[in-house]
Amino acid sequence: MKYVYASRTGNVATIVESLGLDALRIDDGSEEIKDDYILFTYTDGYGDIPVEVEEFLKNNSSFIRGVIVSGDTGYGEAYCQAGDKISELYNCPLLYKVENMGSEDDYRRIKEILKL
Predict the structure, then answer these.
(1) Alpha-carbon distance 46 to 24, whole Å?
(2) What pLDDT sits at residue 114?
(3) Pairing status of strand 64-71 against strand 2-5
(4) Given its phi and psi angles, is residue 73 left (phi above 0), alpha (psi -120 to 50 degrees) or beta?
(5) What topology is assigned to 2-114 in CATH?
(6) Calpha distance 31→96 (Å, rounded)
(7) Domain regions of the chain by residue span
(8) How many CA atoms lie within 13 Å of 10's alpha carbon, on the beta-carbon side?
(9) What pTM was computed for the model?
């Protein structure tokens, strides 16, 4: 399984690094992947999918096998909604929601989900 991520503030990058994953970073959405992958993303605005992730998914959605999303509970019902939206739009499982950069407990749980 491959891993792909988008990170604006560094929270998602920290999660990916803490898991020890070799992952493709989405910078502008023009990146391509031709293998099954898990997407790690942040939530933009008030529950929005980041623009670069939307662009990436336009050309790479057939290979997505799950999404892990970061967000801030301070946004209430919009918390991690980018993951909910991606899951629904691309018919893939929402695997895990992380508060900001997560904790050691989150990393342990994600490793169990991904079977790392």
Answers:
(1) 25
(2) 97
(3) unpaired
(4) alpha
(5) Rossmann fold (3.40.50)
(6) 24
(7) 2-114
(8) 0
(9) 0.96
